[in-house]
Amino acid sequence: MMDNALIADTLSLLGKLMDIHGENSFKTKAYHAAAFTIERFPAPLSTLSETEIASIKGIGKSSAEKITELIQTGKLKILEEIIRQTPPGIIEMMHIKGIGPKKINTIWKEMGIETVGELLYACKENHVKLYKGFGEKTQQSIIESIEYFNQQKGKYLFAQTEETETLIRIYLEKTFGENNVKVTGAFAQQNEIIEALSYLVAAPVEKIKASLNATGYEPVSETKDQITYLSKTGLKVMIYPVAVEEIPIKNLELTSSAAFFHQVSEKLNNRSGFSNEDELFKAAGIPFIPEFLRENPGNITKYTPGMQLVTEDTIHGIIHTHTTWSDGAHTIEEMAKACIVNGKSYLVISDHSKSAFYANGLNEDRITDQHREINRLNNELAPFRIYKSIECDILNDGRLDYSDEVLSTFDLVIASIHSQLKMQEDKAMHRLIQAIENPYTTILGHLTGRLLLSRNGYPINHRKIIDACVANRVVIELNANPHRLDIDWREIDYALEKGALISINPDAHSIEGMDDIRYGVLVAQKAMLTPQQNLSSFTLDAFEEFIAQKHPR
User: Fold this and answer.
1) pLDDT value at position 8?
2) Over the Cα atoms of the chain, what is R_g?
3) DSSP β-bridge partners for residue 222
4) pLDDT, tens digit, for every residue of 43-98?
5) Whole-angstrom Cα distance, residue 514 to residue 39?
6) How far is Cα 483 from Cα 157, in angstroms, rounded to an integer?
7) How do residues 453-510 score in pLDDT, each as one tens digit?
8) Would 435 disulfide with which of 125, 227, 360, 415, CB 3.0-4.6 Å?
9) How far apart are CA 15 and CA 273, in angstroms?
10) DSSP states of 340-385
């Protein structure tokens, strides 16, 4: 089924490629406008006729024809044709931050460059800065973006690998038996970035290869210990043929740091013959330690059996959500009712503030109107509770986006940086500390502004920021969007040591986006976060008490 998101992405791609080819700007703008409208349209377009689609504001007759073609055939002839006319390297440039379609058009048509490698060379030879619209700063920015892009090749977000992992594991289990197959490596460790899916398979090498060859897969490399394939998505798949009695020790090795593995394995008299890892750890005189905690050898003494870590079931409220009041896809009521269906006790609405004009941020008058709607819904949906919040922009000088008078009308304030992200550490630290010290700041949102595999965060001193949050009783967000996962889980250990409170928040822009909470939970478990240390795990009564203490009325 061609859903709205895929339709919007397809039209957006068509518009960008047409821009790159220098086609009529009115046509390309129409496709971009249609994509923007579709992203926010509440009903599935697949249920509407072409006439009904064309009548939607922001979607014209031509776009409606393309949408209908996509729905009926799953393809778009005009897009297929323009892709055929576009060199692969030009399409690859579309994935590089800071190079938009107009610049790619100049790079291709005027500079005669058709690959990312050629572009990097031209930048380093100082050729690119000579062209109109570029300049020295842009040239340097392109160099940095390409180098980052090249470093991330072959890497995927955890969320991007889940479907592939499931399909491969099901196939292997059906072929070789459930007890003879185990997912291992980075996926089992719940790492935020995955470079390969790894499986232990208790079967002869030739049988494994014959089975996968029959499905069209052939090894891209092979050693005596592993066979490497490429999935249809380009993700590496590594198969480790083992004897069934070797699975526990091999899984320990592949899910542990070298130091962790050494400390456990040196306590074993034998390395095989265990039916499971519980037996292996018991033989080593160590309580079983989950795979996601095997990077830090200190966890051998730090982790205790029965220790309750945060789970999806311990999340009682959804904090940090966007609605149709700003750039979200669903109304407050729709978001609230979805929370109720999922057994949550409260919802924190935090639409964008007025400086985020690109996201339809709320001015003061609209805040009053939104609060009026929340009051009405709280009366209708009680005992479920909706809290009035805002994702308030931290301005360039560290001030928040509203006056104290306006900030005082919210139950809580999430302060985040969204603009002028290219900063030196001293600038970033100044902005963040100023915002943390504002008495109305409740939560510091996505701490470094990073986008995994796309954009490095601005440089900060994590420990100084954590100390400031503790001193000012500001909660630190663990933004659960799989592209962010910010604060990095590796920094949480120090935060917990200092008594900081973390909040796993989905930063949801739709009902489906609330499900991203699970990605925050997965990395929070790696930091051994407990429900008591996570704000979104507070019960409704405990959350009410927290709000009352932080912002007494």
Assistant:
1) 92
2) 26
3) 227
4) 899 999 999 999 999 998 989 999 999 999 999 999 999 999 999 999 999 988 88
5) 17
6) 7
7) 878 899 999 999 999 999 999 999 999 999 899 999 999 999 999 999 999 999 998 9
8) 415
9) 60
10) HHTT-SEEEEEEEBTT-GGGT-B-HHHHHHHHHHHHHHHHHHTTSE
Cis peptide before 42 (omega within 30 of 0): no
Count of CA atoms in the C-beta half-sphere (13 A) of 303: 23
**d(Cα 11, Cα 7) in Å, to the nearest integer?**
6
Bridge-based pairing of strands 443-444 and 317-321 is: unpaired
**Torsions phi, psi of 152, nearest 5?**
-90, -5
Contacts of 79 (CB under 8 A, 6+ apart): 10, 13, 14, 17
Domain extent, residue 128, equals 96-153
Q: Is residue 143 located within the same domain as residue 162?
A: no
Q: What angle do CA 354, 358, 361 make, to 5 degrees?
A: 25
Residues 6+ apart with CB under 8 A from 497: none
Residue 203 lies in a domain: yes
Q: Identify the CATH number of the domain in which residue 471 sits.
A: 3.20.20.140
Cα dihedral value 262, 264, 270, 274, nearest 10: -130
In this structure, are strands 196-201 and 193-194 parallel, antiparallel, or unpaired? unpaired
Contact in structure between 356 and 326 (CB atoms under 8 Å): yes
Q: Which residues pair with 227 in a beta bridge?
A: 222, 239
